[in-house]
Every structure is written in C-alpha cells, then in structure tokens.
Amino acid sequence: MIGFTSENGYVDGIVRGYRGALLTVQQYNNLCHCETADEVRNQLTATDYGDQMMMTKTQAGTNTPGDGLKDKLRAKFVDQFRYLRDNTAPESTARQILERIQYGYMIDNVVLLLAGTSNYPQSDEAQGGGDGKKEEDARQEREKELLRECHPLGQFDALGILAVGGMSPQEAHQLILQELPIGKYFTDLKTSRYELIREIVWKRYLEDFCAWSLRNLDSVSRKLMAYLLEREAERRTLAIAINSLKASLTKDERFELFPQIGLVHQNGLSYKLSRAEDYQSVKAIIEQHPLLSARFSVGLDREHDRFDINQEEDQSVNPFYSKFEECLAVEEVEDCKSVFEFPANYAVFYAWVRLKEQEARNIVWISKCISQQRKDNASEYIPIW
C-alpha cells in the first residue's frame, strides 16, 4: 500500500486547513450578538464564508436571512469538497474515500425524490381541460423544487428521471439504481414506507463503508474510520430505538433498522432494544453496558419527548435540540475532532465533512433564533472548537 503522505500529502494539508478555518468561539459569539439578518451576513463575510456571503441578499422587507443562506453555506462546502476530490488521483484511496462519502448524499437524494413523488398521479391519469393543465403545471413545479432540494454532491445523470415520479423503490432499483454504486443498498426492500427505507439503506451503507475501510485502509486509518463509523452506527441505533417507540412498527421491523456494527450490536443489545416497550426500557438496556451508559447517561437522564420516526432529521428546522439529541451531536463533534490529532490518516476527510455539516446547522440555528426574536436561545448551538 502506498504511504499516505507520499500519495496524499497535499490534500491532507488542504483538509486540515479547512478544519482550521471552521468558525472560532469568538466568531460564534459575534453571530449570537447580532440583531438582524444583515448583521449575521456581515459577520459571516469576515469568515471563510465571505465569498459566498457577498452574494447573499436579505429578503426585502423582512428581518430573516435571504432564502439563499443555507444554499450559500452548502455551496462553500461543495466547492471545498470538490477541490479536495479533484486534487486526488483517480484510483487513489483518498479519492475512493471521498466517493464513498458522496454515496450518503446520493442515498438521501434518491429517497427524497421517491418519497416526494410517491403521490404524483400518473401523467395519463391527468384529466383534460383547465384542471388537468393546473395539475401538470403543479407537478412540474414540484419536480423542479425537489431537484433544487437535492444535494449537489449526490447528483447523478438519471436523477431527473426519478423526479418525474410514479416509480416504486423496486422499480427505481430495477430501472436506474442497480447501475449505480449505491444500487446494492436498495435491493430486496420489503417496505414501501420511505422513512423506513432511508434508515434501512443508511444502515447498509454504514455497514458496507466500515467493511470497506477495514479491508482497504492502512492500520491507523482503518482503526479511526471504524471508530467513527461504528460510533455513528451506535448513535443511530439508540436514536431509532427511542424515536420509533410510538411508531407502528413490529419488533422485527425495528430490529431491521439497526446497523449491525458497533458496541450495541456486538454486545447483543440491538435485539433487546428492538423489543423495548418504552423509554425507560431503552434506558435500562443501555445502562447494562458501562461504556454505553457513560456516553449517553447525560442525554438519557432526561425524559425524552421526541418526534416520531417520520420527522425530518435536519435539526436546523426543529425548535430546539432535546438533551438527548444534543448529547449525540456533541459526541459526534468530539469524535471527529479527535482524528485530526493523528497525522497522515484517511479518516480526516470523513471527519471534516461531518464537522462542516454541523457548522452549517449551527449557523442556520443562530440565524433562525435571531429572526424569530429568540436571541437568548442562539447560543444553544453545538460547539466545535
């Protein structure tokens, strides 16, 4: 295996530079003290987002950030990611890591389009006359809206075909997805519920990414990537176990959602969690394992009043983090920060992506708090530095 430094020294320096350019504590404090959307934008122009913020305008007549704020944060991330990818050799391990990170965005785009178009009437069902024309116009507008929501890093040539709608997950796999690297994650789906499909596919993705890392990476990178992916799997398992308590799922359906990697799986707790009847049962199962109990006790000690499994996962659109969610997010940040302490390893690419995503959620959170006159809550972001 080619040594990391000789093969990827340049991109290693770039990604560590990106990590060093994440917002500082002082910059977060400056954002939290803003009074208006214009002040938020002005503060961001002095950060690594400056070039993007110069193109963001405040919506006329409102005190909210322009609707491009989230898009501009994403655009900066996408530009940086693509620069990293473009500066790796086509067959290099670093390129393969970055491509596999993109699989996650591809999965999210596919599920978004399948779910978003599942209620479309077939085009030949449209009635003639004015009503039929209105329905078709609305359909086309919805297609455009869904495609705009898709993440740029998860785009592929046939994405537009999925936006037309009318396909079941099985049909989409047979006609389109089986030709893609993510196709194997969509095979043999036994449910038509898209909130479950996303969790099943992500479970398979994490398991496969971890197995690939163990087979293909050097000893240090292998341990670090397995550490990150297994801990993410553990957090997802615990979150799903709690969030699905009120969902209409059988015990076997719940079990199928849990990734089969990490301490929860290795200690036989996944099966027990799938049989848990209430929040206290979940808490008692986790407390059976000292390491898991130590990690999650702060979040689990508070009664969890959370969404059902159908709710959007993006925390930036929710009013506040629950204590439990905050516990999970803080742990992920600390895990990702820790891999930068090791020189010359492939896990830094994955870790930077997760930190950058959290930074964007933090900024959107602060902006929304300010626009909704909830400035006192703006400081409740997840610290990165």
Any key phrases for this structure?
single chain, 385 residues, mainly alpha, 18 helices, globular
What does this structure look like?
- This protein has helices at residues 4-20, 25-32, 37-45, 50-53, 69-86, 93-116, 129-149, 159-164, 169-175, 194-216, 219-243, 251-257, 263-266, 269-274, 279-286, 290-300, 323-339, 347-371.
- The protein has 18 helices and no strands.
- It has one domain (4-377).
- With 385 residues, the chain is an all-alpha fold.
- It is 62% helix and 0% strand.
Distance between the termini: 34 Å
Oligomer: single chain
Radius of gyration: 22 Å
Largest pleated sheet: none
Overall mean pLDDT stands at: 86
- Unreliable residue stretches: 56-66, 303-321
SS content category: mainly alpha
Q: Please tell me what the overall shape is.
A: globular
Question: What is the secondary structure topology, with strand pairs?
Answer:
Elements: H1 4-20, H2 25-32, H3 37-45, H4 50-53, H5 69-86, H6 93-116, H7 129-149, H8 159-164, H9 169-175, H10 194-216, H11 219-243, H12 251-257, H13 263-266, H14 269-274, H15 279-286, H16 290-300, H17 323-339, H18 347-371
Helix pairs in contact: 1-18, 2-3, 5-6, 5-18, 6-7, 6-10, 10-11, 11-17, 16-17, 17-18
Short description:
The chain is mostly helical. The protein is built from 18 helices and no strands. The protein has helices at 4-20, 25-32, 37-45, 50-53, 69-86, 93-116, 129-149, 159-164, 169-175, 194-216, 219-243, 251-257, 263-266, 269-274, 279-286, 290-300, 323-339, 347-371.
